[in-house]
Design brief:
This protein is an alpha/beta fold. It has twelve helices and 23 strands. It has two domains: 2-18 and 230-429, UDP-n-acetylglucosamine1-carboxyvinyl-transferase, Chain, CATH 3.65.10.10; 20-227, UDP-n-acetylglucosamine1-carboxyvinyl-transferase, Chain (Alpha-beta prism), CATH 3.65.10. The chain has helices spanning 20-32, 46-57, 92-105, 123-131, 168-178, 196-201, 233-245, 264-271, 316-324, 345-356, 388-398, 420-429; strands at 2-4, 11-15, 34-40, 61-65, 68-74, 86-87, 109-112, 135-139, 143-149, 160-162, 185-189, 205-208, 211-216, 227-228, 250-257, 275-284, 287-295, 303-304, 328-332, 359-363, 366-371, 381-383, 405-408. Strand 4 (61-65) and strand 5 (68-74) form a beta hairpin. Helix 1 runs parallel beside helix 2, helix 9 (316-324) runs parallel beside helix 10 and helix 10 (345-356) packs parallel to helix 11 (388-398). The two termini are 24 Å apart.
């Protein structure tokens, strides 16, 4: 439990934690490669650490000293069959991408997770992998524990699969399974989702008539993963919103990954009138990185379009907070996926807004929020629901209150951002 008092402003410079999506993939791809990879600035957050633990269970030698991780890759054929269920903790990325790897490698295994992960559907990866010849046994046909039963000859059936909804996890799961097929497996992506898998594996991407076609097979060379992981844009988004809504705020965020498939939230904030400056551009392992400075600004309302939702899905909770302080009525729809995250995030955000006294309407797939630039949140007790993004959104909202608020299970921020509360303290004391 954390107590958050009304804060007058936020000022200073902080360095963003390593990107969770890239950290997961860097470790997985290093394990798949033939040879030793050294990954710098690897995330200490709970979810990426879970990925390391899972691959150790598969016989991969992984050493970690501080934020430096050395992985001795075993190649496509070197994984050991695990002696016990593989615990994916709270990490949906670990569970879904690992399922693709195990399915392709022909390794029978059972994946388990915590209560939150065990309540999230696995159907979206089970359906396409079943077309590749893999079978599953899942609780209620949909949830962890999930037993992966390889194809009878331990060889996946290559296929072409069109993503019914934009999902980087589903896309990556299929492409990772496809690495073990003798002929190409092709994923057709009508709406682009985050593309870290394509970049880190140097996968060929063909664009035709607005659709991206990405393919893998046994001919795909898996490169060693020697680089430093960029900072996490999803973590930066909390401070971008805070900088916009805290009077006189002036926050610099260092080492932020600004991959265009991740930064829809920044573009939306700019559309709302946010004062965001990007400097010190560089390129790290094909990923653009920069420093970002955000200053207090008067926001105006916007509607987030359904086609924008896939690339800001993780940031919608904190964007909802921004909307509460914007002039006019804002909304987003087409975000029903939020109901199947670490919590029902639509309901969780609605509870945050209700507690703070925001005027809003909840829909089955989004929210409509009546904003007010002069809004002062009421002191409240917020339930994080063990959801790191809800806890951090609550903290930013609570800081703009007239008194003391309480955030329950606030330590869950460690799932993605272990230093969040320290960074909040640094910025509020400058």
């Amino acid at each position: 439990m954390k107590q958050v008092f009304g804060l007058t402003s936020l000022k200073g410079a902080i360095t963003m934690p390593p990107d969770k999506s890239i950290a997961h993939r860097s470790a997985m791809f290093a394990a798949l490669a033939d040879g030793e990879s050294v990954i710098e600035n690897y995330s200490m957050a709970a979810d990426p650490q879970t990925t390391l633990s899972c691959f150790r269970q598969l016989g991969v030698n992984i050493e970690q000293t501080g934020t430096t991780v050395t992985v001795k890759g075993v190649g496509r054929s070197g994984f050991s069959r695990p002696e016990a269920p593989i615990d994916c903790g709270n990490s949906g990325t670990t569970a879904r991408l690992l399922t693709g790897i195990l399915a392709g490698a022909g390794i029978e295994a059972t994946l388990v997770g915590d209560d939150s992960l065990s309540s999230r559907t696995m159907r979206r990866i089970m359906a396409p992998l079943s077309q590749m010849g893999v079978s599953f046994e899942a609780r209620d046909g949909d949830f962890l524990p999930l037993r992966i039963i390889p194809a009878s000859d331990h060889r996946v059936i290559p296929m072409e699969y069109s993503l019914p909804i934009p999902s980087a996890q589903v896309k990556s799961c299929i492409l990772l399974a496809g690495l073990f097929g003798s002929e190409p497996t092709v994923v057709a992506e009508p709406v682009v989702s985050r593309d870290h898998t394509e970049k880190l594996l140097n996968l060929p991407v063909l664009e035709k008539d607005g659709v991206r076609y990405i393919s893998t097979s046994t001919d795909t060379e898996i490169p060693l993963q020697n680089y430093s992981v960029p900072g996490d844009f999803s973590a930066a988004a909390f401070w971008l919103v805070a900088g916009c809504i805290y009077p006189n705020a002036d926050i610099t965020l260092k080492n932020v990954g600004i991959n265009p498939t991740r930064t829809a939230a920044m573009n939306i904030l700019k559309r709302m009138g946010a004062d965001i400056e990007i400097t010190n551009h560089s390129l790290r392992v094909s990923e653009p990185v920069a420093d970002m400075t955000v200053r207090f600004s008067q926001l105006h309302a916007t509607d987030i379009l359904p086609e924008e939702v896939p690339n800001c899905i993780d940031e919608l909770p904190i964007l909802s907070v921004a909307m509460a302080f914007a002039q006019g009525v804002s909304s987003f729809r087409g975000a029903e996926d939020l109901r199947h995250k670490e919590s029902d995030r639509l309901a969780a955000v609605a509870a945050l807004l209700r507690g703070a006294g925001v005027d809003f309407e909840e829909h089955h797939d989004g929210l409509t929020i009546q904003g007010n630039p002069g809004f002062v949140a009421a002191p409240a007790t917020y339930e994080s629901l063990h959801d790191h993004r809800i806890a951090m959104s609550a903290a930013i909202l609570a800081g703009r209150s007239s008194g003391k608020s309480v955030i329950k299970d606030a330590s869950c921020t460690a799932i993605s951002y272990p230093r969040f509360w320290d960074d909040l303290s640094v910025l509020s004391e400058m």
